[in-house]
Design goal:
The chain is an alpha/beta fold. A hairpin with a 4-residue loop joins strand 31 and strand 32.
Length: about 600
């Protein structure tokens, strides 16, 4: 039975980013994975290990920290004993990068205190010290930590991780990344200059430009917001909270901060803003290029990175943040590579993070202060994506008034049901300049275009089509974009098709004498939503045989409204909410599909009850 379950998972991995790819499953099964926990945490920790074995066949060995002390340090607590155990456990250096270590429990700088945070020992300023096995100051094995202080916090983290993998909440949030950048001000003076790497807006732009073109990149930039009377930017803080509550896969902050606050302008302050987060179904990965945000091992307080992971009403699924001071350019080099790994390449957190530390040009002494609070085997990736979203006729430019037809394609066997399509205005660039005293701050950055057309259509045999008209009141330019979020709630899978870049021109594409191209088929229904009657209207540019069919959201045919030969022109037909047997159908989403000799189109409608 278990082998059948694994086969089903592997059939879906191409389209479900929460599942592991077939290659990754094979790699992770073939290497060692270690979890170290205190005795009190062992039963809950075993639940996580059992889940990974049941779901993916990945073996994770759970070891009691005290058993390590008994074997390696005469029963006395010793962080170096843990390191020695790890070194002996992983005896094949060629496999280290695919292995993993998870420390289950918080820890502090002073193990001799009775602080509740002392669950798993710490070793110096970074958990990387536990996995520096080759003596070169570089970590060799992906490592993460659940900073749980008690059973309640650990249960919350483990349950969230299992749910995140087993039953993810689908939606656009899975394909959206939020970049937040500090402004140029520091204590009333100009600080955000390139030479010291603190032009935070420019660093956010660097990240945006390397991400997959199918990702919806959203930005909250401090330079775009006004100060209040207290020197803060409350509108920026509110925008961040609103976006996180709406849902973002990743939240990346660049700028000043500390254990309790992001930015001198209070972009997020734990004591003021934490209770406003209500995002328990949309937990992001939080990444902070900001000093001390991840200072998890201080016995006197809990840092932001810890608090986000233990907040019942929301917070984060994992955090990557520095324990101590960090440097602007080095932060960007490390974290840009990390985000490329998990977003563009689909790597799991531990591998993507360690690869960025090992194989990119970030200064290792800066990278060492960054810790992963979370499971290193967790995948925090957007849906798989490709560019199989085409504009019919492949025009070089789309013009005002032009009616555009698009076709998308996904794997039919996966069982996708709905394509949620958004057409975006052109991305555009802004030049910002500000002078304080005798220094001038300047930065060029881009803003993602807003969607001007949104529609949901049904996917038939892996194919879906739609059409829209280019309006007059949009942002024109050379960087328009179409993204289609394709999903199945029944299969709990999603995928993304996209088309980028698209040139959008405000010049009309045709004269008033040629408004309707000869190949255009128009169709709509009114009213929509409706109860119980709606009229479906369609226009044919030439004579054709047709079929007009109604489907439910499961893809089952409900009603054949029309079939036969129809002359060119407009035709109207009433649907009374009944199926082919004369029974009233349930309320909900339905799709009507028109097949002609030269084109097939579908539209969405909602029957209210």
């Amino acid at each position: 039975m278990k082998s059948i379950k694994l086969m089903v998972i592997l059939m879906l991995v191409v389209v479900n980013a929460f599942a592991l790819s077939e290659e990754q499953v094979s790699r992770l099964r073939e290497v060692e994975h270690l979890i170290i926990a205190p005795e009190e945490f062992i039963p809950l920790t075993n639940q996580l290990a059992d889940f990974y074995y049941d779901e993916f066949g990945i073996q994770r060995t759970v070891v009691d920290q005290q058993a390590i002390f008994d074997q390696y340090s005469g029963g006395n607590p010793d962080a170096n004993a843990i390191k020695a155990y790890i070194e002996d456990f992983f005896d094949d250096p060629s496999a280290w990068l695919d292995c993993s270590v998870l420390l289950v429990g918080s820890g502090t700088e002073d193990w001799n205190t009775t602080d509740e945070k002392n669950r798993i020992m710490v070793l110096g300023e970074t958990d990387d010290n536990f996995v520096e096995l080759s003596g070169d100051s570089y970590p060799d094995i992906p490592i993460g930590r659940f900073p749980a202080q008690n059973l309640g916090q650990l249960e919350l983290m483990i349950n969230r991780n299992i749910q995140y993998i087993e039953s993810p909440v689908l939606g656009w949030w899975r394909n959206k990344v939020l970049l937040v950048a500090d402004d140029e001000h520091k204590n009333g003076e100009l600080e955000g200059i390139y030479s010291i790497g603190l032009n935070h807006t420019a660093r956010a732009q660097d990240v945006a430009e390397v991400l997959n073109d199918g990702i919806w990149v959203d930005k909250v930039l401090g330079i775009e917001y006004d100060f209040d009377d207290f020197g803060n930017k409350p509108e920026a803080a509110q925008d961040i909270i609103d976006k996180i509550n709406e849902g973002r896969l990743i939240w990346y902050y660049i700028g000043h901060g500390n254990e309790e606050v992001l930015g001198d302008e209070d972009y997020f302050r734990i004591c003021d803003h934490l209770q406003l987060l209500q995002n328990s179904e949309h937990l992001p990965l939080f990444v902070a290029a900001s000093t001390n945000v991840g200072h998890f091992d201080d016995p006197d307080f809990d840092c932001m990175a810890e608090i986000f992971m233990t907040y019942n009403e929301g917070g984060t699924i994992a955090t990557v943040a520095p324990r101590g001071p960090s440097a602007g350019f080095a932060n960007t080099i490390l974290l840009k590579r990390f985000l490329q790994n998990i977003i563009n390449n689909g790597d799991y957190l531990g591998y993507g993070f360690l690869e960025a530390k090992l194989n990119f040009s970030a200064f290792i002494m800066n990278s060492r202060v960054y810790n992963l609070l979370g499971d290193p085997l967790l995948f925090v990736n957007p849906p798989g994506s490709d560019e199989l979203l085409t504009i019919n006729g492949n025009p070089d430019t789309l013009f005002v008034g032009q009616e555009v037809e698009i076709t998308g394609q996904v794997e039919p066997i996966a069982g996708f049901e709905i394509a949620d399509i958004k057409v975006f205005e052109s991305e555009y660039y802004i030049n910002y300049t500000n002078t304080l005293g005798d220094q001038t701050y300047t930065v060029d950055y881009s803003k993602f275009g807003e969607p001007f057309f949104e529609d949901e259509v049904y996917v038939f045999d892996g194919i879906y089509t739609d059409e829209f008209v280019i309006p007059e009141d949009i942002q024109f330019g050379e960087h328009g974009r179409i993204i289609s979020y394709v999903y199945s709630e029944m299969q709990n899978i999603d995928y993304v098709n996209y088309n980028y870049p698209i040139v959008l021109s405000e010049l009309p594409s045709f004269t008033e004498d040629d408004i309707l191209p000869s190949s255009t088929v128009r169709m709509f229904n009114y009213p929509n939503p409706f109860n119980p009657l709606t009229t479906i209207s369609y226009s044919l540019p030439e004579d054709s045989g047709i079929e007009l069919l109604i489907y439910n959201i499961k893809g089952q045919k409900v009603r054949e409204l029309e079939s036969g030969f129809r002359e060119k022109g407009t035709h109207n037909i009433l649907w009374d909410g009944q199926d082919n047997n004369g029974q009233i159908v349930a309320g909900g989403v339905y799709f009507y599909k028109l097949k002609t000799a030269y084109k097939t189109i579908s539209r969405r409608m909602v029957l209210l009850k």
